[in-house]
Specification:
The protein has helices at 2-20, 26-35, 72-83, 87-98, 104-107, 120-139, 177-183, 185-203, 212-221; strands at residues 43-47, 54-57, 60-64, 148-151, 159-162, 172-176, 228-232, 238-242. With 254 residues, the protein is an alpha/beta fold. The protein has a 3-stranded mixed beta sheet with strand order 1-3-2, with helices on one face. A 3-stranded mixed beta sheet has the order 4-6-5. The chain has a two-stranded antiparallel sheet with strand order 7-8. The chain binds zinc ion (ZN).
């Protein structure tokens, strides 16, 4: 019996020792999260994306590599975020996840040299004009002036609103270049206004989602209330595009 207890203690010590050292790679992090109750996730990818700290789609989980060094409560929050049954549970988990400072190196936007479009400056000026215009027209001029950006890296998303980070980076709205090219300026402005409704949610302290407050405001400003919209490309082929992925640090893909 004593020997059994000694062996048990030994096992536990080993477990503590293991838990003392942070996971070194995706596989070890996945193992660690499983010991905290994660299930249904088959693979884990480490990312270095500015906007998304944690996201999952199907059985794949993506986590910013800065979380390798996260303390236990933050890792447990990631599990709650994935496994959470209610919105309240996930929102609480998001808050804890965001308390973990991720080193700037892991959040640096990846810039692809040569990707910038010569028309960018003009497009950005136009977007800034319309942001101001819509702000006055639909939000009483109450929205903050925030950076507007173009991205050549958004595949299924048309635009995104990224909240300010606890590390001092400002909120921003990003519009997909491909979206403007494929669907035209009117649709791009529709997307800008969609993201501005999220900006209004964020600045009003409301949850950033497509729930009732979004739908009501969308109706008031005259835009489609859905996150996914059917758009027609010039080739007349219709496709359903994800309006965006929320630029929350902890984004959830549907
Ligand atoms: Zn949206």
């Amino acid at each position: 019996m004593r020997r059994f207890i000694a062996a048990r203690i030994n096992q536990l010590m080993q477990l503590f020792l293991e838990f003392d050292s942070p996971p070194q790679n995706a596989e070890q992090l996945l193992q660690r999260l499983r010991t905290y109750g994660l299930n249904g996730i088959k693979s884990l990818k480490l990312t270095s994306n500015r906007a998304v700290m944690v996201s999952f789609s199907g059985s794949e989980l993506r986590i910013n590599k800065g979380y390798l060094s996260a303390p236990e409560d933050v890792l447990r929050a990631i599990v709650s975020f994935v496994q959470g049954r209610t919105k309240a549970e996930r929102r609480l988990a998001q808050k804890v996840i965001l308390t973990h400072p991720v080193a700037a190196a892991h959040r640096a936007p990846v810039r692809r040299p040569g990707r910038a479009d010569p028309h960018d400056a003009v497009t950005l000026r136009e977007l800034a004009y319309w942001h101001q215009e819509y702000n006055l027209r639909y939000f009483g001029g109450a929205l903050a002036q925030i950076p507007l950006k173009l991205s050549g890296r958004m595949r299924s998303r048309l635009g995104q609103y990224t909240t300010a980070t606890p590390y001092g980076e400002p909120a921003e709205i990003t519009i997909s270049r491909a979206h403007i090219r494929k669907h035209g300026w009117a649709e791009a402005l529709h997307t800008l206004l969609h993201e501005m409704v999220h900006q209004w949610q964020a600045e009003s302290g409301l949850p950033i989602d497509h729930g009732p407050t979004f739908r009501d405001k969308a109706a008031a400003v005259g835009i489609a209330p859905q996150a996914r919209r059917e758009l027609r490309t010039p080739s007349a082929a219709s496709l359903v595009v994800t309006q965006h992925e929320l630029g929350l640090r902890a984004a959830r893909r549907s």
